[in-house]
Structure formats: structure tokens, C-alpha cells
Amino acid sequence: MLNTEEIRHRRYAQKGVQFNMLLLGPRGIGKKTFLSNLCQMEDIAALATENNSNRDSKLPYTNYAIKIQEMLTPVALNVHVFDIGLQINNAHTSNKVRHFIQEFYDRILADEIKISRDKKTLKQSDGRIHVCLYFIDGNSNGLNELDIDMLSKIKEFVNIFIVIGKADRYRENELQPLKENIRRDLEANNLRSFPFGDDRLRDIFPDGEDTLISDIHPFAVICGDRFESTDPNNGEPKSIFRYNYLDEKISVERRDVSNFIYLKGILLGSHLHELKETTNDIFYEKYRTKKLLEQKNSPAQQEDKENESRVGTRGTTLTSESMDYHAVDPDHQLTCVGTVYEKNQIIEAYQNKIVGLEKMIHDISEEPSPATKTVSTECE
After folding, report:
1. Inside any domain, residue 379
2. What is the pLDDT of residues 148-180, one digit of tens each?
């Protein structure tokens, strides 16, 4: 007979989980191929929806809605893929991407403050980005100006993983210096990627190495452009890629080939729920608090306060002749004063909350991450 925990887990597994990703990077760096390999689907083009906006404030992107089965739990992936750096002048590109991320926060916030709302519909329409995979080509031997500008604009709104695309272009002795240069540039420009803390590779796979995940980040990935069986006795398709100089078939899920399988395990297994929780509890909560604070300090709110103040003042300076017609109800005066006091208290509480959230984001990289679940994905 199943115990309570097993029943809860089974019901949760049947419902599945929604996970929203943003893939950013230059065209041709392998973002769509990575997504195909991640989902073990050879043809994902049929699942694509093109969003070619003609508005100056928008960037064209491709959206993918993909359902996969991982660890017996259905995962509904909602993925947005942006090609960046295509314009002659990319000065506004970073702001457009930031606004794209913020729009999902604004939609949730608008629904939350409604008097009547459908929580089920709200959950289903939650498009908040849980993680951004930022692909770089490494040609600048680190981060370039657009990379730095982009990461600085979005770091307050989303979890960020840095990914080195098409890593087979580099020799093994070239990758580690490149990763070190990227980490150096991140630190020098006060840029934040996801804090893995003390999480190790063995948290992803039980037989994994006792290596800190932060030591292999940025993730160098190699992906295949076709699905073939690497074992003649096994009909299950596995994504493979070919060494151009050897024409040898090698599975991309081999741990000694690239960091792809580790990144897959992090995204779809060990850190999936942590990424969702961080998005809701830290990034969105901070954004929500600031927005509500701005509303409290808006000109309309200030005008209300001034009107309340004038009402209270008139109530204390009215003459006895006019008292019968214009006297203000003392209870109403107290209500006005109390309302102003309560708003000031709310503003102060919001300000303290923002300070606390900013400190949490700053300190989280120095603290061990919550216990993570393991992924039993088989590798070759």
C-alpha cells in the first residue's frame, strides 16, 4: 500500500510541471539544435511559432511548446529563442529583451490584484521565464560589449546560465582558459549567473564526479544534428554528432565529450524546481514589491494624500456658524489620518522587503543550495 508521500508524488507526476526557458545568443550558435537534443526530438520545426513583430519596441523570436517525459514526470516546455546581434546598431537590443521578460511579470501582477481571479487559469497562463540560457561563441575570448550589456540588463529578472555553443571548435586545452576568462568578465562587471553554491556533479548523477558545478560553468556543449542509434542492438534513437576530421559517431550524452548531459540533468532534473522557486520567490517578488511601491508613490496616490490632509485640516478650522452644514465627521477624520499612516507603514514595509530580497540575491551564492534531486538518465 502506498504511503502519503508516494501518493503525493504520484499525483504530482501525473499533473506534470511547466517550465519556461529563454535561449539567447547569436544566430548560428546552435540554440535550436541544443533544444532538439535536449528534448530528444529530431524535428522541432513543426512545433515552432514565429513571432516576427514589426514594432520597433519588439524583437522577432521563435516560440516552441514541447511536451516531454523526464523521470516519469511530464514536462511542458515553453521555450523562446532569440537571435541577437543581428542589427547594425544593437544599442536597444538589451532593453527589448528585458522588457520581454518583464511583460510576463506584469501579466501575473495584473491578475493578482484583481478582485475576482481564477487561480487555475492564472497558473496555466504563467509565462514567467525560469531560466535564460545565454549562448556565446567565444570569439572574443570572453564576453563582448553586447554580452555585458545584455547580462547587466536582465540579471535582476531571471536565472542565467552561460553556455558555450559548438564547443567542438575548441581544443580541450582552450576551453578551460575560455571559461576562466568568462568567469573573470562576469565578476569584473558585477554580473550574476545562477549561484550553484556547493552543488556538485554527483547531485545530478549518483555516480557523478565530486566536482562543484560552478567549476564547470560556463557549460560547453556539443550537439548532434541527427538522431541515430549508437548501439545496433538498441533501437532507441540517440543524438550523435560527427568529428569532422574522423567522421566518427559519438553520442552527445557522453560525459567525456561535453557538458551537455550535465546541463540537461540540471535543467530537467536536479535544479528544475529550484529555478522555478527562485523565479517566483526572489526575482518576481522583488519586481512585484517595487511595482507596488511605485504605485503607492504615484502622483495619483500623492494627490489622494493631499486631499485627505486638506479634509482633516478643514475639520479643525471650521467656524461654529458653518458647523451644521460643513463639519467633518470625526470618525472620517480619523479614517483619513489612519489611511495615510497605514500607507506610510506599507511603503516602509515594501522598502525593507526590497532591501531583504536584494541581500538574499547577493548572499545566495555564498550559501549551499537546497537539497537537490538526482537524475537517473543513462549516459553512454
Report:
1. no
2. 999 999 999 999 999 999 999 999 899 999 999
